[in-house]
Write a structure and sequence with these properties.
239 residues; mainly alpha; DUF998 domain-containing protein; transmembrane helix; membrane; transmembrane
Amino acid sequence: MPEETREDLIRSYYRVRTALGLLGLSLPVTLIIGGILPLGHIEPSISDYYHTVLRDIFVGTMCAIALFLISYSGHRRAMGERISDNFMTTCAGLAAFGVAFFPNEGPEGTVASSLAQLALGRDLAATGHYTSAVIFFTCLAYMCLAKFSRTAKPFRRRIYKASGWCIVAMTFAIIGASYAKISLTGPLHDFVVDYMLVLWFEAVAIWAFSIAWLTKGRAEMSIVKLVKRKPHAAPTPAE
């Protein structure tokens, strides 16, 4: 492959990863600030913003993330690998669409307000939402732990591993806190809602995903700089 073409491809990957990272970093912040200013309060979870005037921001950002993930092919499957980058990012992208278009049940008394809720009912649509969210975070964690860290240099490998395990921990925390928020009553339910634990667990998981993808983008750009400095040397596979 000509050097210019390879460099253009790497820059394209860098832009995709940077866009993914920035979208992830900005989503919780935008919704929290947006909730404080026009709404006067913060919703107990990121998904609950679907049922507010900030729905467009939530759905639009999740759709943008979904499209970026689906369009990102990643590296070819190495010998011995059973799951390719493209398969994992496509699954994550489809799950992101599910998070966007299958709303959660919303506050008590909320009427059906989406096509999914009208077609499936509030409870089944919410099941689709939570299932999609678990698949989304699982795929992202797998990318960090099994894909990004595979050939990374030690410092970046630690970032990918930390991000991946953080996503795993936050996914379990989200499941537990969501169960308390939806199904329980009493002090535990009030604690989860009052301190907005679901919101913060979701935000930390998304930020961890964002940091990993921004780091990956910087790694790719370091390859471009290496190629420019040593035009006749093959770039190191370590990222």
